[in-house]
Amino acid sequence: ETGVTQSPTHLIKTRGQQVTLRCSSQSGHNTVSWYQQALGQGPQFIFQYYREEENGRGNFPPRFSGLQFPNYSSELNVNALELDDSALYLCASSLSGLAPGYEQYFGPGTRLTVT
Amino acid sequence: GENVEQHPSTLSVQEGDSAVIKCTYSDSASNYFPWYKQELGKGPQLIIDIRSNVGEKKDQRIAVTLNKTAKHFSLHITETQPEDSAVYFCAAANTGNQFYFGTGTSLTVIP
Q1: Cα separation of B101 and B19, whole Å?
Q2: What pLDDT was estimated at residue B3?
Q3: Are B32 and A100 a contacting pair at CB < 8 A?
Q4: What angle do CA A55, A58, A62 make, to 5 degrees?
Q5: Residues of chain B neighbouring A1 (CB-CB closer than 8 A)
């Protein structure tokens, strides 16, 4: 086990609603990255937070937003949910978002279903 | 941006045989290449990684090779066991530390 926890495990929402997913990073890690994994695909980078600041963003619209708290836990918020947002959302924690090549350790994910 | 391609998409081997999964990347700035194993219902688990200043790395039955000139890297699993059955992902990262993942290889080890 990596020590990265995510909640909730599963979530069902209706199109147009908003959702908040939560992640607690591994002890000692100050960086959290969020990924979206569609069924049968590899994870796709959404954004990364380092010491409470966004430190890079993938090709996702502004309705995907995030926060990182002083204890380095993080939230992913998605507004105006669309059917295509149905996926496994993964967070990964690492030691530093500024230096290259730091290992990222993943949590178990939150399975989001939008109906 | 970076583009990572992974082959094959599915792989079946007999227990005890070797398995090889190959990935190519497009961005010469990528300098960190991790491999993840994902079991059903779980998050990806880091199994081995390699940095661009190294050509090969081995950890027990698992090894990774990197060819920077050709921009490809491979995962080698020897003496496969049924518990090696899972989906394996390669990834590439550059100084921005954003990971770009391949599309995955579903490995089945037949007892």
Answers
A1: 20
A2: 93
A3: yes
A4: 90
A5: none
Give the number of residues written for chain A. Answer: 115
Residue B27, token pair as written in the block:
């961005």
**Interface size between A and B, measured as CB pairs under 8 A:** 75
The angle formed by the CA atoms of residues A13, A19 and A23, to the nearest 5 degrees, is: 125
Query: Chain A interface residues facing chain B, Cβ-Cβ under 8 Å?
Result: 2, 4, 31, 33, 35, 40-45, 48, 55-56, 58-59, 90, 92, 94, 97-109
Partner-chain residue, chosen from A43, A48, A106, that has the shortest CB–CB distance to B97: A48
Q: How far apart are CA A70 and CA A55, in angstroms?
A: 15
User: What dihedral angle (degrees, nearest 10) is formed by the CA atoms of B66, B67, B70, B75?
Assistant: -30
Q: Which of B32, B97, B101 sits opposite A97 (nearest CB)?
A: B97
**Rounded alpha-carbon distances, angstroms, from residue B31 to B37, B52, B56, B91:** 20, 5, 14, 11
- By Cβ distance, the residue of A4, A58, A100 closest to B97 is A100
Rounded-to-integer distance, Cα B54 and Cα A99, Å: 18
Q: What pLDDT, on the 0 to 100 scale, is given for residue B8?
A: 97
pLDDT of A3-58, one tens digit each?
A: 899 999 999 999 999 999 999 998 888 899 999 999 999 999 999 998 899 988 99
